[in-house]
Amino acid sequence: MQRVEQRIWSCRGRVVRFDRRPLIMGILNATPDSFYDGGRYTSREAARTRIRTMVDEGADILDIGGESSRPGSERIGVEEELRRVMPLVEIAVAETGVVVSVDTMKADVARRALEAGAHIINDISALRHDVGMVQVVAEHGAGLVLMHMQGEPKTMQENPTYCDVVEEVSVFLKKQTAFALKHGCAEDQIVWDPGLGFGKTFEHNWTLLTGTSALAREGRPLMIGASRKRFLGALCDRETDDRLAASLAVAAYASHAGAHLLRVHDVIHTCDVVRVMAKLHHQEREHDMDGADTVAGPSGNC
């Protein structure tokens, strides 16, 4: 596939630009069993408060999910997922001006959410779970996140195996991008997510993170989702509630390495990180430009 340098994300009539700093996608799970925020936002008022808070804190995109994808989780039916997701989509669309994403593998859920005003479908199966998903995304011109996952949530951590995890993730995402394009999606609808924690061992996750710059150089906008995940806790010996510092360290690294989006639970703190990193990057460039215009004096002079 020809390399494409994509600087915008077309999301069902909204244009998301990647030209200043990594954008922040705030996570909102309307589930009883997600690994960090499961059960916190299952009521309509709790969800409304959280939506408003994340927008006030600086979220560029809200990502709403109704089905847990933690390791070992069980799948739920379409009607239950719709019951959980649709009230939150309606609130986010009606009461905020931000771009709304829905985290789902089901075409029927995606269709209903897009008809209600959502802009993006975040499909952790990368169009493999439901044969109708690609048509729904193409018909609506929705933004699409293609994520790499070896296996499925229930079994993905049993024995994940790779020869070269960065290369294999890249090959997979290229293949699924080609599939999406063949079935009517446009180049600028597609964003990649390497799927940290999804069918990867501890070492796979760290290798994949250090491959962020290599994946970003492929030309597709790249989303990194490491927020409070298990491999951070394993390194730092921290439970889920105590993984903020580790999550922010990854956000800083990913920002420096060229990630375009950060999918996070902790919006306000991550916004601070990307602002600082953007300022440092700007200062570096100015310093390099000043240095290029300066003629060196005799040896030993300041």
Concise overview:
The chain is 42% helix and 15% strand. It is an alpha/beta fold and 302 residues long.
General description of the model:
Strand 5, helix 3 and strand 6 form a beta-alpha-beta unit. The protein is an alpha/beta fold and 302 residues long. The termini are far apart. Helix 1 crosses helix 2 and helix 9 runs parallel beside helix 10. The C terminus is likely disordered. It has ten helices and ten strands. It has a single domain, classed as TIM Barrel (Alpha-Beta Barrel), CATH 3.20.20.20. 42% of the residues lie in helices and 15% in strands. The strands form two sheets. Strands 8-7-6-5-4-3-10-9 form an eight-stranded parallel beta sheet. A two-stranded antiparallel sheet has the order 1-2.
